[in-house]
UniProtKB/TrEMBL annotation:
<dbReference type="InterPro" id="IPR001851">
    <property type="entry name" value="ABC_transp_permease"/>
</dbReference>
<feature type="transmembrane region" description="Helical">
    <location>
        <begin position="193"/>
        <end position="214"/>
    </location>
</feature>
<keyword id="KW-1003">Cell membrane</keyword>
<keyword id="KW-0472">Membrane</keyword>
<feature type="transmembrane region" description="Helical">
    <location>
        <begin position="155"/>
        <end position="181"/>
    </location>
</feature>
<dbReference type="GO" id="GO:0005886">
    <property type="term" value="C:plasma membrane"/>
</dbReference>
<dbReference type="GO" id="GO:0022857">
    <property type="term" value="F:transmembrane transporter activity"/>
</dbReference>
<keyword id="KW-1133">Transmembrane helix</keyword>
<protein>
    <submittedName>
        <fullName>ABC transporter permease</fullName>
    </submittedName>
</protein>
<keyword id="KW-0812">Transmembrane</keyword>
<dbReference type="Pfam" id="PF02653">
    <property type="entry name" value="BPD_transp_2"/>
</dbReference>
<feature type="transmembrane region" description="Helical">
    <location>
        <begin position="73"/>
        <end position="89"/>
    </location>
</feature>
<feature type="transmembrane region" description="Helical">
    <location>
        <begin position="14"/>
        <end position="36"/>
    </location>
</feature>
Length: 224
């Protein structure tokens, strides 16, 4: 749907994405009621969690061991895919075409390649990866589904991409940073801080990063 309206119909990316997100919120609530007959949350003992990977002796390392061992299979898949996609984009002809589709689409047209088809394929792959992120939330972190359980993490991911200017390995580090802040906010609740304050920490950091990024861009523009 996003590819149709944004790529093929030349709609504004931001407006289309906001519209689809609003649609998704309402559609999720509707399907939850119509398919499962519940509202707000769906929980079933038959839901099986994704397996965690035990790294054996690595788990005995102080601090670091508990961070590395016992993570979901999707966590390690995400890390591996970050390196694999980075190599694909920079050391493969198809990856070069994909980058050109976003940076210089007319160059692709001159050699008879449709940038719209490449963008559509990339968006389909992106949707599949985002679905894996949703699976991590719903059948790994927990084994239930709650309306709005992503809690704006997709927008934080967008901030990370903007902050790192699409450089994949930097995006991986940025995601780890925001994940650390999110986990720390949960820990701080145990110290007596209000939940509203701790829940706001990742979004405050996102706004701070956006402000720094905007300031850097304006300085470069003035210097040029």
């Amino acid at each position: 749907m996003f590819a149709f309206f944004s790529v093929w119909r030349k709609g504004d990316d931001i407006i289309v994405s906001i519209g689809i997100n609003i649609l998704a919120v309402g559609l999720t609530a509707l399907l939850l009621r119509s398919l499962f007959g519940v509202s707000g949350q769906f929980d079933d003992p038959a839901i099986a969690a994704l397996p965690n990977i035990d790294l054996g002796p690595v788990g005995d390392i102080p601090v670091l061991g508990s961070f590395l061992s016992g993570q979901s299979v999707l966590v390690w898949l995400a890390v591996a895919l970050a390196f694999a996609v980075h190599r694909f984009l920079h050391h493969n002809n198809l990856g070069l075409r994909l980058r050109a589709a976003g940076q210089n689409a007319e160059a692709l047209r001159t050699v008879g390649i449709s940038p719209e088809r490449i963008k559509t394929t990339a968006l389909l792959a992106c949707g599949a990866l985002c679905a894996l992120g949703g699976a991590q939330l719903s059948i790994s972190n927990v084994t239930l589904f709650t309306e709005g359980m992503s809690a704006g993490r997709g927008w934080i991911a967008l901030v990370i991409v903007m902050m790192c200017r699409g450089r994949l390995l930097w995006i991986l580090l940025g995601a780890l940073l925001f994940g650390f802040i999110d986990a720390m906010s949960v820990r701080l609740q145990g110290l007596g801080l209000p939940q509203q304050v701790t829940d706001a920490l990742p979004y405050v950091l996102a706004l701070f990063v956006l402000a720094l990024s905007y300031r850097r861009r304006t300085r470069r523009a003035h210097a040029a």
